Amino acid sequence: MTQYCALHPLDQATSLESLGDDRYRGRFPPSYFNMVGPFGGVIASTLLNAVLSHPKRHGDPVSMTINFAGPVDDTDYEILARPARTNRSTQHWTVELIQHGQPAITGTVFLAIRRDSWEGSDIQMPEVPEPAKVEVLDTTGYRPWMNNYEFRVVDGHFHPDGSAPAQRDSHSTLWMRDEPPRPLDFLSLMALSDCFFPRIFIRQQQRALVGTVSMTTYFHGDAESLRQQGSRPLLGVARAQRYFRGYFDQVGELWGEHGELLASTHQIVYFKSEGF
User: Fold this and answer.
1) Which residues form the Acyl-CoA thioesterase-like N-terminal HotDog domain (predicted)?
2) How much is the pLDDT for 141?
3) Could you tell me which of 79, 68, 77 has the C-alpha nearest to residue 29?
4) Residue of 119, 134, 140 whose CA lies nearest to 236
5) pLDDT computed for residue 274 by the predictor
6) Which position among 18, 78, 88, 271 has the lowest Cβ density within 10 Å, counted as fewest Cβ atoms?
7) What is the Cα–Cα distance from 100 to 5, expressed in whole angstroms?
8) Residue 142 has what pLDDT?
9) Nearest to 150 by CA among 210, 92, 117, 192
10) Measured between alpha carbons, how far is 87 from 203 in angstroms, rounded to an integer?
């Protein structure tokens, strides 16, 4: 497997060994683990890395959907990344993470060669204090994966000590970036799109048994947009729309520091309601 040397922790976690025939092998380090298994964002980034590293890659990511079909642990896994169809400017991929002989993660990735076009946006970046004016969240005592990020919560924080009452909604706004700082690219943006606390944690202000079932991230910036962002923090905005019979959704936006929407994300999440 690839030697880590002085790689950034994210690059270590998403490192893959090519096995040929559209297959790759890797293992997730304990530093990116969550409640059960690895942090979902780093799983998604690793699957994306298999596509972006593939010799048949054609274009840059526009969207990615992954489905968490089963648990992932800290043993070796294989990724199967296959181009399903390649057109003149677009390419569709199917991806699978296989562990212990069966698929744990399935997904699709859509790549495209972007053309110049009219640009516009129907939403605007919220007006918030600049990152330097917001206190850094102390992640001591949180899950290991959180130590790989710097969070500056503007509003909508989760207090794991139970010191806050239940909230009227789950809306939250925060600055976020890799820790140590890392220039933004598609891999880090994919992982950051899953960095929000589960919305039910914010709404109820207590932990619950939760697990993302399906997640889609749309990339609204190109490689040059991400390069210009550098290692500066992104502004994340997230909310839920409904909690119903064991599932809730989560909607998020990731904004560049100068107001450019770089990604949006949607999830459906399983939860157990006992104790609420």
Assistant:
1) 30-110
2) 80
3) 77
4) 134
5) 65
6) 88
7) 28
8) 86
9) 192
10) 44
Q: Of 106, 39, 109, which is closest to residue 70 (Cα–Cα)?
A: 106
The set of residues, in sequence order, having a beta carbon less than 8 Å from that of 219 and lying 6+ positions away, is 60, 61, 62, 63, 64, 186, 189, 262, 263
The pLDDT value given to residue 1: 39
CA dist., res. 201 & res. 253, Å (int) = 18
User: What average pLDDT values come out for the chain (276 residues) when binned by 10 residues?
Assistant: 66 97 96 90 98 97 98 96 97 98 98 94 96 95 92 94 90 98 98 96 92 97 96 98 96 95 98 71
Residue 161: the pLDDT is 83
For residue 265, the number of C-alpha atoms closer than 13 Å in the C-beta half-sphere is 30
Q: What is the pLDDT of residue 3?
A: 42
Question: Cα–Cα distance between 238 and 156 in angstroms, integer?
Answer: 9
Here the tokens at position 91 are 């390419």
- Amino acid identity at 234: L
Q: Report the C-alpha dihedral over residues 163, 168, 171, 172, rounded to 10 degrees.
A: -20
Cα angle value 37/172/177 (rounded, 5°) = 60
User: Token pair for residue 265?
Assistant: 């994300």
- Domains in the chain (CATH in brackets) are 9-114+132-271 (2.40.160.210)
